[in-house]
């Protein structure tokens, strides 16, 4: 493609050489994987400055370089103020602006993004629409799945996924938008039809300096809604009105608004909510009519997720009947309050709660549906927000009858230090069992009829990361194995 065409959305750039006859065959932001004919984009990263690697990229065949400072290279160097934004715009141009041809829903917030994205994806399938999904667990392009590195991919990968979706005939794309992605401009070149806000509670304060910076990053999704070139496109913000931060998110957008909630007055409202051990029941009131909803999903947080999914689905043309049937027949979400059933007389639930708010929610839900004791197995990730550890420790002993703290991806950190942080100001009983398999075994040994073991933090994950090495580990598989072994020994 002609380089000038790739740069067509980038405002104000200067080139060290004429660009008339320069063609590029790809885009790269990593010198280690740059190919012949690529445009290499120098990004100032969290750890390193990509400008340092421009010469390496040229040695590998880069045909041009996009940078923020002049570089002495024998290929055209295109100067811009901000390579992060320019990367997103060049990626959109290179792939022919694919998000304009898809109906794209972006979901942001601390908890619930993955859950809502699968609920919405299921509704699209029930509508017999080809759908695509980008999120924490995987990327799914019209049924073809692939593993992911990040919840929200970098700008180049994201536009390539959209382009692949377009080629596969996808009409509706659903994606999770993390605060890191917003802060790093990964979605800047994406034209969203619908942007959903779930909730905002403490997390990632290792990356964002203060809670306000975290909020500002999240609200960028709503501020950017409407940046797209297609001025005819209708765009909507879908906001959880019960969140204390709702008004800030509403203020950040100039586009259409649809609110949802349980407590405050909302456009999409749940009334007469009933939470039981069989699931949730409520009356869904919406601008297009009302409907009784019954779902096997547990807990009040699942009602919020259904409201968010229903709101986005209505804006995507779904009928209330489709939404109702989809919630009724949902198989649940991998590693999200997922029951493990091996015929044991006690409950075992694997969940991805790794923030204080989500841990409190699932513990409340578990308590409400359990007659016996709650046995909690949980840990905190290494190289992540240290300030949430003691909060999670306190929540654990407050709600659970028996607590086992164990490893959850200590990464480069010493597990002892993580346990010290979790238990720093803890009053109450707990055990520390560093090895997660052994922790699960001890939980199973102490469970009796009517009890519930809640295994929190890793959900769908299939590894345990210790000192840079990812060892295979799956809470769901391991719990199943241990329960079966116990039965054989009886
Ligand atoms: C801390 C963080 O957010 N890092 C992300 C970031 O990389 P970075 O800024 O650290 O990159 P860097 O190492 O400083 O390098 C800067 C630039 O130099 C380039 N480089 C570097 C070395 C070299 O030899 N040659 C070269 O060209 C790099 O490719 C890069 O363009 O940009 C990369 C591309 O977008 C991301 O893959 C990477 O995610 C890392 C793997 C990560 O762990 N991120 C987590 C914290 C994250 O983003 N999580 C959120 C979800 C969190 C949640 O919701 O719970 C997510 O969206 O995944
Ligand atoms: N709406 C919600 N409010 C609070 N907690 C929730 C909500 N939905 C799910 N949870 C809890 O948070 C955990 C993570 O849910 P989910 O994976 O859907 O969130 P996420 O926003 O995608 O998280 P991540 O940022 O890690 O990708 C669940 O396992 C559950 O414990
Ligand atoms: N995507 C998040 C989830 C972490 C989940 C938990 N298992 C941990 O490792 O802390 C992160 O990388 O921060
Ligand atoms: Mg997620």
Topology:
Layout lengths: L2 H4 L7 E2 L10 E3 L9 E4 L12 H6 L4 E4 L9 E3 L3 H12 L8 E6 L4 H14 L4 E4 L4 E3 L2 E3 L8 H13 L4 E5 L2 H5 L10 E4 L13 H13 L12 E5 L5 H6 L4 E6 L6 E9 L2 E8 L2 E7 L4 H16 L4 H9 L9 E2 L7 E5 L4 H13 L5 E5 L10 H11 L2 E4 L9 H8 L8 E2 L3 H11 L5 E5 L6 E4 L2 E4 L2 H15 L1
Helix pairs in contact: 3-5, 4-9, 4-10, 11-12, 12-13, 14-15
The protein binds ligand UAG, adenosine-5'-triphosphate, 2,6-diaminopimelic acid (API) and magnesium ion.
The site of 2,6-diaminopimelic acid (API) has 9 residues, from loops.
Q: What is the average per-residue confidence, as pLDDT, rounded to a whole number?
A: 95
Number of strands: 24
The secondary-structure class comes to: alpha/beta
Low-confidence stretches: none
- Strands of the widest sheet, in order across it, are 9-8-7-10-6-11-12-13-14-15-16
Distance, first to last CA: 68 Å
Strand content: 15-25%
Q: Tell me the major beta sheet.
A: 11 strands, mixed
Gyration radius, to the nearest Å?
24 Å
Bound molecules: ligand UAG, adenosine-5'-triphosphate, 2,6-diaminopimelic acid, magnesium ion
* Structural shape: globular
Number of helices: 15
Describe the structure.
The chain has 490 residues and is an alpha/beta fold. It has 15 helices and 24 strands. It has helices at 3-6, 54-59, 83-94, 113-126, 155-167, 179-183, 211-223, 246-251, 300-315, 320-328, 356-368, 389-399, 415-422, 436-446, 475-489, and strands at residues 14-15, 26-28, 38-41, 64-67, 77-79, 103-108, 131-134, 139-141, 144-146, 172-176, 194-197, 236-240, 256-261, 268-276, 279-286, 289-295, 338-339, 347-351, 374-378, 402-405, 431-432, 452-456, 463-466, 469-472. α3 packs parallel to α5 (155-167) and α4 (113-126) packs across α10 (320-328). The longest helix is centred in the middle third of the chain and has 16 residues, at 300-315. The termini are far apart. The relative contact order is 0.08. The model has no long low-confidence stretch (mean pLDDT 95). It binds ligand UAG, adenosine-5'-triphosphate (ATP), 2,6-diaminopimelic acid (API) and magnesium ion (MG). The site of magnesium ion has 6 residues, from α4.
